[in-house]
Input
Amino acid sequence: MTLKTEEFLLNLGPQHPSTHGVFRILLTLDGETVVKAVPIPGYLHRGIEKLAESRTYTQVIPYTDRLDYLAGMLMNWGYVHAVEKLMNVEVPERAEYIRVIVGELARIASHLVATGAYAADVGGLTGFIYTFRDREDIMDLFEMISGARLTPSYMRVGGVADDIPDGFIDKCRQFLDYFPTALDEYNGLITGNEIFQARTKNVAIISAEKAIEMSLSGPVLRASGVNYDLRKARPYSVYDRFDFEVPVGSKGDCFDRYYLRLLEMEQSAKIIRHALDQLPEGPIKGKVPKVIKPTAGEAYAEIESSKGIMGTYVVSDGSTNPYRVHFRRPSFVNLGYLDEMLKGWKIADAIAILGSIDIVLGEVDA
Amino acid sequence: MQVKGKGLLKGLGITLKRFFKPKVTVQYPEQRLPLPDRFYGKPEFYYDKCIACNMCVNACPNKVIKLETEAVDKKKVVTRYDFDQQYCLFCGLCQEACPKDAIKFSKDFELTQYNRPDIKIKFVKPEQVEQRKEEIRKAAAEKAAAEAAKAAQEAALKPETADKEGT
Amino acid sequence: MDNVYSLLAFVLLAGMILGSALLVVTLRNLVHSVLWLIVMFIGVAGTFLLLNADFVAAVQVLVYAGAVCIMLVFGVMLVQRPNMEHSNPINWRFKLAAPLVGGLFIVIGLLTAKSQLVVSGQEVPAQTVQALAPILLNDFVIPFEVAAILLTVALTGALLLVKEVKANGNGS
Amino acid sequence: MGTALNPSYFMVLSAALFAIGLYGALSRKNAIAVLISIEIMLTAVNINLVAINKFLTPEAFIGQIFAIFVITVAAAEVGLGLAIIIAIYRNRHTVDLDDFNWMKW
Amino acid sequence: MVDFALTHAWLVPLLPALAFVIIVFLTRPWPKLSGAVSIAAMFSSFVLASSVAYGVFTNPGFIERPLIYSLRWFGMEGFTVDVGVMLDPTSAMMLFMVSMVATLIQIYSTGYMHGDPQYSVFFSYLSLFAASMLGLVISSNLLQMFILWELVGLCSFLLIGFYTFKISAREAAKKAFITTRIGDFGMLLGLLFLQIIFGTLDLAGLAERVPHYEQYGISLGLLTLIAILVFIGPIGKSGQFPLHVWLPDAMEGPTPVSALIHAATMVVAGVYLVGRTLFLFSEVPGAAEVIAFIGAFTAIFAATIAITQREIKRILAYSTVSQLGYMMLALGVGSLSAGMFHLWTHAFFKALMFLGAGSVLHALHDKADVWEMGGLIKKMPITGWTFVIGGLAIAGIPPFAGFWSKDEILVVTLEYARQGHALGYLLFFLASFTALLTAFYMWRMIFLTFFGKEKPENHPHESPLSMTFPLLVLAALAAVGGLIGTPWANVWGKWIHFGHPHHGEPNYGLMFFSVALAVAGIGLAYRLYYQDEEKKLAKQLAERYQPLYKLSYHKYYIDELYQWFTRQVVDASAAVFYWFDIHVVDNIVNGLAGATKLSGQGLRYFHTGRIQTYALVFFLALLVITVVLAFGSPTLAGSMGGVHS
Amino acid sequence: MENLFVSMAAGIRSLLGSGGLSEWATDFLVMFLKLGAILVYILVSALWLVYMERKVSAYMQCRIGPNRVGPMGLLQTTADIGKLISKEFIIPKDADKKLFLLGPILIFMPPLAVFAVAPFGKGMVAIDMNIGVYYFLALASLSTVIIWMAGWASNNKYSLIGSMRVVAQMVSYEMPLILSIVGVIILTGTLNMSDIIHAQENVWFIFLQPLGFLIYLIAAVAETNRAPFDLVEGESEIICGPFTEYSGMGFAMFFLAEYANVVLVSVMATTLFLGGWLAPFGLTFIPSWIWFLLKVYLMIFLFMWFRWTYPRVRVDQLMEFGWKVLVPLSIANIFVTGIGKYLYHSLGW
Amino acid sequence: MNPKPLEEIIEELKTRYPGIEVAESGSGSITVTVDQLVAFMREIKEKYHFNYLTNVTGVDYRDYFEVVYNVSIVEQPHMLHIKTRLDRHNPVVPSMVPIWGGAIWQEREVYDLLGITFEGHPDLRRILLDDQWEGHPLRKDYQWEGGRES
Output
């Protein structure tokens, strides 16, 4: 009786509590240690790029909501930004400010989910509940301004759908005033926890060179010490008018990636405060024809979404429908390095690493 | 070396403090949060306002709305306005596109149904159509009558008008 | 009265021990063997209780059922994860072994029957722990220490053995 | 003798258990199974020791002490034995005792 | 407390041992904590030891009947070894002294070793050393003592070679270890003889049996041999001529080590051992004379070397050797009290001076040459003045400690000579001349180091409190520590003595004589090295007596002699043995192996390698044998069947 | 009140005695009743603890938890159990069917058996065993095998990983658990639980053995597989560990057994460190068994508190913490306790 | 690191690679032929320090395929929009993975949805669609059945 060793294969997902959606990783394990990891996305592929080809320019907007459904505002923005670039539309100042406000709110909301889900990934469910509690406030704000909580479809080519409703600014300020205490709570419950630190510090360190080479973006890139935030590096919209800092990590481990998001939330709150203070009066929509019909051409535009660089590539053939729309989804590109990151870590670390990248499967699978 | 366990104790402190603080739970069916005005809930269709311009149908990204018209006496009568709610993205583009505010979203968000066919909302009821048709016909008839009357009047003033048309 | 019950208990326990022991050595599934082994150990612990050795019974459960068997289970899992169904085959020797052990049992049984043991008739003191401790830690302190060192050395050795070879295995 | 418990009973039980263990030790191919069988044999000895302790020298407790030592040594033995088996398995990918024959000649 | 201490005297060595274990296994990554653990253990040890000392000295019964309690370690037919604790005034004094000096030196070390990467390790060694030394001191048994003696040697080895990156340190460590091993070997032989002849190594037992050695069937000659053998151990450990060579080299270790081991504690272990076994030496006058002469010779020999050395610690080292010779001399002439008294005072002032030297080195960044120092007393007042106190003490200026003990030794030596021992006056002369030399070279060093002109290239600074505190304590003790043994009120002699408490009348003449010697020595040094700013006279003297100067400066070429001996004699004999081993021994062994191999080749095929087959065969055979035995032969069957209890 | 249960038992005994039963049979029956009462207590308290856990977690998370079924949601667990009973017990195709079925049945055995020796109040102990503490340790170690068995029999990879974790974790933490108790045993010189409680009349052992208590607490959390040591179930990593394939009542049994184990370790902690049923500050007018339960629930609250505050540790950190921190610490604790006791006796303080 | 303005860089590149087409409007859009692509990319990475590959995608222009690369510099706001045209019937392009590892999934995506083969890609498999999927949906001639809208 001669037995041969069989590789211990474990299908992490597609249905698994910690893959943040339907995502599958085929792990080859030695005991609990990951020897090889093959990420298999695509379970949520809806062909949004294909769908967009048969929609008008405006009709694509609701689909972009469904990319990163945790920060739908930013996805809207990325798309309309590209179309505006294609059409050379001037966006009124007030609209830009409103975009900044809702965009940064969306960033906070997205990071809150990332933070809480990360706490849940490493086993502390209470942190998750806390962040969701505070995210509700932002969702309420979104509901006020756009009528929807998760998928706002708020932005339009050339501006935004509606002006700021009454009471929004007060409520927003109220939230911003409350938010630091919430951050303190997260820091006390999650960040400062020794177990949490032991779980995340020095796990899956990404060097700055490697991060740039693998085109990582967003907090994942910045945690490795690369100061690359489009809001600063190539300021779009009105970001050059705000005084904020880009937090940068030092080590590039899971803890840095996690903690960076907390710091970014702080900065986002600062930006929102500035934007609310500076908010000008004026129209909310630029001069855009009712039927959008750009001349043939192409445009590629990038914004900094909560997960990283969200690029949109629009090709127009002169008709009312875009000829080709491509979304450069940050989570998707960030995931390209996952297999390398997982190697040599334990299953529990694999969860922590995946959580630290903060993916949204709607975005990965498009 | 920092003191181990400080963070652990702090965490315990936070949860214990929360233990005694007020809760955020909303007892949903009994208690409801106020909804903002812009909320996209159940779609509502105002039959009377609709001019069957097809703007909403064209605006809809997901082709949710089925609008059928019947030309009654050259006027379009909406015979069917089906809203296939299960595919609706609740983006509000139809509402935005509608020039007459005929389609609107209410604040009713409890949209679940027990049967799948029930999700599809058929806004236009046959009697409404009939009534409408009736109205149009009546109007047409009235109009025809009026026109006839007018024609009769005009006939009297014919030369002037003919002149105008001629110019 | 008491004797009858203890005899009954003995018969039951003996049946449990022997039955599960037989299952241990005959079952094809190694995991089942190990689990039956636990049953057997618990039976033996019961026997010890019957023999007024409650401390030894507890040690038996703690060490054998609680630790040794778990170690075995772990070993089983480490060496053969897939297909446990026929993990425990029998070799050609069983044909020879069966009559041998049968003979051995008969011989020992006969010898036992022939021997005349002098039963002291005294009872084992109830406070076993209090009685055991001084013996273990005074009269038998050297063997006690030796056993402790043996355990430490054995486990350290075991650890080293497993680790060392693993490193080699990776290297080759 | 009557219904009273007799040391012979336990000795016969012990002998039977020992025989079963020996059978297992001789007839199983799997090294771990052999290890298990050896444990059975050791337990058989323990029954004997404790029985003799109870019936012959109840005051001295030597039998129980010995049983405890046997258990200790058995635990060490299992640990080491398993480690050796695992080590061999990692190198040779087998736990069949008949394949462990490279210590011949 | 006192009762507790007396019954728990074994805790005194155990606590530092525990500290060693804790540091090694737990606190090594945290230097501060390690130091704290070590000092705490040492200090509690010291407190216990003080209690023990108090208990012993308040109970006169202990002088005659030491408090002994022991545990059977192992025993076999005719040979038992106990380990135990023996408390009498001598050991209590040593306990007190060792634990106190060790505590002070550990405190000192926190400052001296500050920032060393091996800080924790250093403290663990110190603890282990203290444990072994304290254990040695309270041993009731010569074997136990020997084991701890070796452990002390080991610690010494570790500590001398503590700076493993320094080749000289490693070499010195090896030298110390090997040299003392030579002595230990002789001592082990002596102990074996004692065990074989007297059947015990218990000090108490031996003390009873040795005087009646005739009953054990040995001659005086053999006993002398044994005594000499035993004495070889102390020769090695206490740096007596000719095995003194390791001690100066041992100064390569950190200064606290030098102070602790090579001044106050370990090196006096030999003296202590001789003191403990004085019942043996007093029985054999020959051996005692040998001790006395070796002691006296070592004293003068080392002193003559010391006058020319340049390195501060080396001067102190030779001074130590010299003082140890003094103690040996006292013991050799049969006075336990004088020897132990000098041991006691010497421990304080020598530790003080070593620590002071360490402080100086610390301030001057390990610049050791006394000629490059000068005027340090202004920059380092505490170090300097405590050092001066030490110098006064060692030179023998009353009322400092050294005076009383040295005086005591001179008294007993003179008495010894007066008793008509041949060459007794020679001993006295050597002792007095050594006293002169001691004062001279010590003050030479002090003048050169602390007085005179300041050297501009030095930037000394006073050491931290952790270093100066022990200096102050030790200075105080060096100043007053001898007052318990003044000739007028000799408390010391009443407590620590061998045989009858013996005390001569205060000999004012001798006292004056010794003071005069000391003052003369100091004066000479003053003339040569203080008054004469350019040191012209000193240089002239060195020029004029060039050969003598060189001889002294090169330590009489003893090291070179040893080296030559090793090269020539040992290597040659090794070559002979090598030839024998290769050609004779190996052939025999190989032949045997070949035969075994041949037979093995034939028999190996019975080995299938399958363990279960072996077991099967084994049990089959067992079955057959059992059946045959039990049922085959009736007689055996009968005996087998009847398992009677 | 104080003697409520004791006198109940006495009453039943006298009733049976007067009914003409032999003494032996009476003993047997009373013992049976006692064990039955304990069984009922365990089951009820497991149910109640599920409710308590949900409430505590909800309150710590700014929620209010179950509130629909029954007043304050008190019947929630009952409803859950009802639901689980009515659900299908799915047996995976490739599972080892016998062992798979046996798992949920056996899992309750070790805690139940141990409760027989737990002193619930003054005179309220079913079997006053001479080696009580040791018996607890011995039997507690058995549940490892049962959980492992269940996981292995499921033939699911997550279950298998969970099973391996069970074995590794529980064996590792049994060491510090046992060693932390040794300190108490040194102080009392007995393994009998009643004696241990009586030994705490002057001062509870939590004050004499703070380190021992801490180690016991941590090891107990690990032994019961609760956060932050809930690697066995680790739902964000391995779904539900060994119980992944269990559904319906099988799952419920494991779920409840976890709480039974929590009660068990809390009872032990109370007995060993918190003075058992002894009343603090001389508040003896409250019955001893109420004190006991109060302390037990305080301990349980502590466990829940930990669970809803801490993230989960990693498996290698778990092992490292167990072997490199807890075991040395507990050995040190034994050492210090021994020295302390020796000093105490020899100095006569 | 490289303070040259984008226009200058493009001018330089134009002289070195005569085959490239540059769009006029300062958008940094450059069209490179397939055979020059690797050399060109290497040069801009190594010489002009374009270290960050943002985006890789493809467009089906019915007659030909176009693969689009967006390359930028982390330290500076420069961005190049590099395009290359491929044969419609045999769309093969060298992989950029050896130059920018970040291309690995994006190229797989382009392969998956457009059917463009990347030569030298270490792991060219479908990524979003099922392995058994037939056709490449983002091609303009892709036909499908089912779905709500057909």
